[in-house]
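Quick one: co-fold with s-citryldethia Coenzyme A.
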Amino acid sequence: TTGAVTLDSGYGNTGSCKSEITFIDGEKGILRYRGYSIEELAEKVSFEEVAYLVIWGELPNQEQLAEFQAKLAKYAIVDEGVKTILSGFPRSAHPMAMLGAVMAAFGSYYETTGDSEEDILRIIAGMNSLAAYIYRYRRGLPYVYPASGLSYAGQFLHQMWGEPTGEPKVNSVVEQALNKLLILHADHEQNCSASTVRMVGSAHASLYASISAGVGALSGPLHGGANQAVLEMLEEIQNDGGDFEKYVGLAKDKESGFRLMGFGHRVYKNFDPRAKILKSACDDVLEDLGVDDPLLDIAKKLEKVALEDEFFVKRKLYPNVDFYSGIIYRALNIPTEMFTVMFALGRVPGWIAQWHEMRNDPTGRIHRPRQIYTGATERSVQPIEER
Ligand code: SDX
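Sure, here it is.
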């Protein structure tokens, strides 16, 4: 049980729901997918295994994993028509805007029910290819088709950086780091974007429309867009002579409207367990890749000052998943504007699992929160000459 939360079957006015997918204890900093701790999953399995676990409830055995990987490789080939959608965007359009729009139309290329296993595979594998296509399109580069025998992370790296004619070139350190990042983002119970996917799906909109809406919600800088906002904040501090204490001071001044990106969380009132894993992964990945990123030094100084400052301590504002992830993505040479797309690639199994859980709930109803009306009491229309 999750204690004080008043649970309501399906959706009622509480806006909360029952779920068997992800457990979070915000006070203790615990995160588990289907009962497995994030710490163990991040170290021991692939993202494909986590996606399978989150969606179907159990870790796959070798035969199930091999079959799942073969299907993902097949569905990584997306309809050529999506290139026409992409070509309609200005190259400067944000990758999340492009991803959300393409996902809304993606199902139209296929004769499916919209909620079958095939749709699940098309969305997971297809989004991976679409993310790489978006990267290539924004740079005017030729698209790179999927290659066989690659992991999910490897397939993305191949299609993002591979040469149209070359063999897959995937660096194992980069692939392993991306695999861990994807696992850490796979689900997070009723966060803003997952709730959006549930809300849209509760109207019996298609899985594609619901995922598209989830992409939109995730793009917000208070949510998934924070990973890009963290890097932009660290770069601003670096360009401002590295004066990180000035920015801590700004964050404490309500008038400034400034927030330290990557800090705080609605649920975690202790360290976000994902941030802990990413903080140590940061050091390992940068060392393995021989990257010396001054932004990491600024991040660590910022974290230290904030964790000792009364304003942050009193409000239990700790680094969250977005605080360190951007530094790793940057070390992997993934451009800043693609960071939130990477978050979406990791999160899509969670969105799919939660959408199906909601749609399979026999007591499920359309999500229709009520309100407390604070507007004008009843009044009559005055003729316009008297208004
Ligand atoms: C994600 O929900 C999920 O699970 C999300 C996520 C997932 O996996 O799906 O974990 C991913 O979205 C992580 C969060 C990424 N966002 C950021 O890093 C943006 C910066 N953080 C904040 O804007 C904020 O902390 C939120 C949005 C994350 C949480 O907002 P809350 O719970 O609504 O907190 P709040 O806005 O009510 O703030 C409480 C107090 C306020 O001060 P007081 O009014 O009490 O004086 O804390 C202050 C806030 O001003 N505060 C901050 C702050 N975050 C909260 N002050 C400075 N810097 C911050 N980052």
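If it helps, Residues 250 and 256 are 6 Å apart (CA to CA).
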